[in-house]
Amino acid sequence: MNLPRRAALLIVLMTVAQLPVAMRQLLVVLLGHQNTGSFATAGAASAGCGIGLALTAPLVGRLLGRLGDPPVLLATGLVHLLALLGLAVVTSPVAFVALATAAGLSTPPAMGSGRAQLARMVPSPALSRAYAVNAVGQELLYVGGPLAVTLSLLVSGPAGALVTFAAIGTAGLVGTAVVIPRREAERRPAGSRSAAPGRAIRRTVLATHVGYMVGIGAMWVLVPAFASAVGHPEQAGLLVAVWSVGSLAGGVLLARLGRPGSPAGAYLALVGTLAATSLALLLPRSVPQMAVALAVFGLALAPFLAVTDEILALSTPAPRLAETYGWLQTVGQLGIAVGSSTSGAVNDHLGNTPAFLVVSGALALALVVALTRRRTLRLPSAPPNGSAATQPPVATAGRGFVGDDAG
Asked: Hey, is 400 helix, strand or coil?
């Protein structure tokens, strides 16, 4: 796929570093019930994780640009590790919720840092494939992660699983900090807060992403609800796995074939594809039928996220890119919260099939936002982050990135 070896290694390491974060919500719920005997406490702790991440993701992303990646990654990683280890042993409900919130607040910005670094390390012709490979890695994480949790629970229980994943994730985080080139903190020159076109692009992408994540949040509620509605609640995990495999297949195709057309054109096409294929979720009446619908719906998920990352990388100055990815996480958490709560209420009052209209409606709204603001998606002729091999890096106080880090 013509990716620099260092970039490929970075994708692997930041995926491993993300493992305890990806599985944190599930493990916190299981461990919270085991340690405190209360699902209410477990739910509050899980919410604390999500809220903490949403609050600090942009701030920590900004610190990456100002202090450099390794110090921020290692400092947040240490606090996060201590919080997770505390969760494994504490039994007080108040302390458990507090530690879970601390874990969310101290979430290491491995993904934001890694995605920002890919824009420096990979020439722009290969950037879309790099982000596609990253999206594939994330899908593998969410396909294999729950299986790993299940196996760990059989061997050591929730506490042992949490400690194991925390240790593996910390090792991946340290590896990420080592692979990322050391450099001086970047300083924005006067007036470089980003040109108006770049700000407009980011606003469009973030607004569209809210609608997308409302749909995703609804799916996490409605897929298990569908399995229960058709009398097979035990097959909810299978349906989620099929959905993820569909996304994984779409990401692999994008990584192998490359992005067709311009980033803006691909972005609009993928949002439209998600909105259109979500309508098929209204039709199934059995688990096999839903599996087919989910596989088709999943095909555009990873490609959409990859193109989203690429557009942000090509429109955001290097010192602000990690912060921008932090804002993407924040609006994502907001969208998930809205989608899950709304879809659950609709499912209880109107039934499961009508509730899938929450998914289609959210994605249709995202499509409307993207289409009405499509002029803002035109990328500047010279990407501000220096991702293209022919473009110089912007506002770096240390050595250049292109010649050193691309190969």
From this structure: coil
Q: Is 340 left (phi over 0), alpha (psi -120 to 50) or beta?
A: alpha
Q: Under CATH, which number does the domain 193-377 receive?
A: 1.20.1250.20
Cα 374 off chain centre by: 23
- What does pTM read for this prediction? 0.81
Contact 239, 286 (CB under 8 A): no
Size (the chain), residues: 407
pLDDT-wise least confident of 98-102, 213-217, 325-329, 382-386: 382-386
Q: How many helices, marked H, and strands, marked E, lie in the chain?
A: 17, 0
pLDDT digits (tens, 9 = 90+) for 6-29: 899 999 999 999 999 988 878 888
Domain with CATH 1.20.1250.20 in the chain: 193-377
Helical residues (DSSP H) of 235-317, grouped into ranges: 236-257, 263-278, 287-298, 301-315
Rounded-to-integer distance, Cα 180 and Cα 174, Å: 10
Alpha carbon 14 to its chain centroid, in Å, reads 12
Q: How far apart (Å, rounded) are the C-alpha atoms in residues 236 and 361?
A: 23
